[in-house]
């Protein structure tokens, strides 16, 4: 047996005892962890600097990897805020007595051992560990090699917090970063209950293909906003610009504007100026291209097929002009990643048809797609945004880190 | 594009319109289907006979494949009973207004397109189609080749019922039975939302390995009953014998008796007689072997390692004697498939420790594991018993054929 499998086994064993502890006791671990992060700020920043220095000066990952005093403070606060959320385990979902007298109760229980594969961002290490400890789950973390020093010291602090309250350090296991070990994790059906990949599309594809363990995909967001004929155009400009520029690097940012042809020219002329001020590159279909060329939009290109269904993650978007709403819905259905979709409209019937027909984790009427987020939804820190339909859809937060268990209590009932 | 993918596309399209129909209208399809099954009994039996005749006279699948007047009546009644269950879609799970005025509602919606891969039993065709139509889902069925004639006429009747009420027949698609097409189904991520394998361990392993579509495993049941030192032995005998012999071919039947050493000899002498009357073969560990040999139990063999964790699906079981409850729990944890586990005990503290520590979909105190069943639990017909932890655990019935959708209604909110 490899040493990794042996550690998985210890983690599985530790998980079975964790489920028996009180939520109050587990919260004390979180309080200590927040304190330890604050006390060890200088040391964490030093280790983090080693990771950051190893990257080229202009490497795009540098900012995602970098920790600062401010980011560490936010991380410690995030741990404390997880303590405030209700314990998702131990809830009674149903309770009934069958005609034969068997008392049948369905309760929520921790999932067991959660595996998380993630890339550079070291805040994931702390967020995920805090959510798992709060909900009574053990966790196996497989972080990126470029965050090695940072993750090592963070997990060391997590272990100190666990030990301080008599918990086993096996509950949070940081795996070695060798790529081959990812396969060990993905095939460990006896030890891992669920795997959550957080990162690039390539990572998610690999997990989908190789994993024998059930998976929650927290996938890419190809998000559309449809500007209907009846839209309040000032509102539409506001929503579309916000959805694009407020944080282009995240999954709930806008990728494609779909616009009704009857108001397309007017809308595009209005949206051009704010988009230009953020230097947003626009990949426009023929109709949109014509209008934007007329106003001499400077960052303009003709869209090709692959510009639809493309997740830009940058100051860029594509535009599609449609003849009617069915065409808008068809376009979204063909290119959406089923994350977040929006309509701007003043027509209630039209909006409600859109909301019920478009198949996505979150659908909006007269609001920005940027709201799809555990914190915004009042669910607390999230493990990711699920774009698949089983178990958790949309923000995958503390409340979904549980499964169900049926408990039957009888007096000798047989069938 | 293959003709199968083209059909998947039509099924996906039909599913999007089904979600908009009323539960009442969909129920009319079920009423017509039950009627059509009753009206066409002779014809169904004739087609079924073709399938049955193709199997050797002593083929073990014959009985599972065979339909009778009585079984068809039960099938029609089962369709009618699905009509009585509440529509799982359209339920409001949460509703709140965020501080910025955005009204956020989480509702249940149909999964979309459900793929089911199953083997001989033709009742699955009707049960699954009825559950999917009731809940607003389209379904792709991939049945076994040995049920080809039966499944073809049953799906023909389903299509007649759909057409009668103006629904598209694309909603229920019976795939060709070539084995290669299973891969087409398992990789159709753009068209199928969830795949449920129903059948042998080999089928489930293949699906787990090959599927790119999220899967609900309805796996094997390796079920234990632990007879504790404090057990009422008459009750224990009753429960254990029922769990073994009432229907050995199903997943919730008993596979291994774990018994405390202090009462093992007495319990085994008591259980030997009823077990003998059902000719139950017993694979006993050394301690149990000694006792059962003393009473000349006729169907006795020494257990080897592989007799633990073995799903017998027959009049056979294994027995393990343990020194204390931790050892019992350890044995169950090592060999259980996490389906259904029971303890017989008169000690409440001991029983509650067992119920909370043993990790399984269903755990019982002083009752038979045979109760793990959608019908018994009052959930109606089931798609299978899920032995994994995501989305549905235990009986996977109508109520779980939905996912969630977040709907945000604003007045121009941005972030």
Automatic annotation (TrEMBL), chains A, B:
It comes from the Bacteria. One of its GO terms (molecular function) is glutamate-5-semialdehyde dehydrogenase activity. It catalyses: L-glutamate 5-semialdehyde + phosphate + NADP(+) = L-glutamyl 5-phosphate + NADPH + H(+). The keyword Lipoprotein does not apply. It is found in: Cytoplasm. Its main location: cytoplasm. It is an enzyme of class 1 (oxidoreductase). SUPFAM superfamilies: ALDH-like (SSF53720). Residues 10-281 form the Aldehyde dehydrogenase domain. The keyword Kinase does not apply. Pathway: Amino-acid biosynthesis; L-proline biosynthesis; L-glutamate 5-semialdehyde from L-glutamate: step 2/2. Keywords: Amino-acid biosynthesis, Cytoplasm, NADP, Oxidoreductase, Proline biosynthesis. Its EC number is 1.2.1.41. Catalyzes the NADPH-dependent reduction of L-glutamate 5-phosphate into L-glutamate 5-semialdehyde and phosphate. The product spontaneously undergoes cyclization to form 1-pyrroline-5-carboxylate. HAMAP family: ProA. Belongs to the gamma-glutamyl phosphate reductase family. This is Gamma-glutamyl phosphate reductase. It comes from Aquirufa originis.
């Amino acid at each position: 047996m490899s040493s990794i499998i042996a550690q998985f086994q210890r983690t599985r064993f530790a998980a079975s005892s964790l489920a028996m502890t009180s939520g109050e006791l587990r919260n004390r671990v979180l309080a200590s962890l927040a304190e330890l992060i604050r006390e060890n700020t200088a040391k964490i920043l030093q280790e983090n600097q080693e990771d950051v220095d190893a990257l080229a000066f202009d490497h795009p990952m540098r900012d995602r990897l970098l920790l600062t005093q401010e980011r560490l403070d936010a991380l410690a606060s995030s741990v404390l805020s997880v303590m405030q959320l209700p314990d998702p385990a131990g809830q009674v979902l149903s309770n009934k007595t069958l005609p034969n007298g068997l008392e049948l109760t369905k309760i929520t229980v921790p999932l067991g051992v959660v595996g998380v594969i993630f890339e550079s961002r070291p805040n994931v290490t702390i967020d995920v560990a805090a959510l798992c400890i709060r909900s009574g789950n053990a966790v196996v973390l497989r972080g990126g090699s470029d965050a090695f020093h940072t993750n090592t010291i963070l997990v060391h602090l997590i272990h100190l917090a666990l030990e301080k309250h008599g918990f086993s350090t096996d509950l949070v296991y940081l795996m070695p970063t060798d790529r081959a070990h990812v396969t060990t994790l993905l095939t460990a059906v006896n030890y891992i209950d669920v795997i959550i990949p957080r990162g690039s599309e390539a990572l998610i594809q690999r997990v989908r293909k190789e994993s024998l363990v059930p998976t929650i995909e927290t996938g890419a967001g190809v998000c559309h906003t449809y500007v209907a004929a009846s839209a309040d155009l000032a509102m539409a400009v506001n929503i579309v610009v916000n959805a694009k520029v407020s944080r282009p690097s995240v999954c709930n940012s806008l990728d494609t504007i779909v616009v009704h042809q009857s108001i397309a020219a007017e809308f595009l002329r209005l949206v051009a100026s704010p988009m230009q001020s953020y230097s947003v590159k626009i990949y426009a279909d023929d109709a949109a291209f014509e209008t934007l060329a007329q106003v001499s939009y400077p960052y303009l290109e003709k869209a090709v097929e692959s510009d639809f269904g493309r997740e830009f993650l940058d100051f860029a978007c594509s535009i599609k002009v449609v003849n009617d709403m069915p065409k808008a819905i068809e376009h979204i259905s063909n290119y959406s990643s089923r994350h977040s979709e929006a309509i701007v409209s003043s027509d209630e019937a039209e909006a409600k048809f859109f909301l019920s027909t478009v198949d996505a984790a979150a659908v909006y009427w007269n609001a920005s797609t940027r709201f799809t987020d555990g914190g915004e939804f009042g669910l607390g820190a999230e493990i990711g945004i699920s774009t698949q339909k089983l178990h958790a859809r949309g923000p995958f937060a503390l409340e979904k880190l549980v499964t169900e268990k049926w408990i039957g209590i009888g007096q000798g009932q047989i069938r």
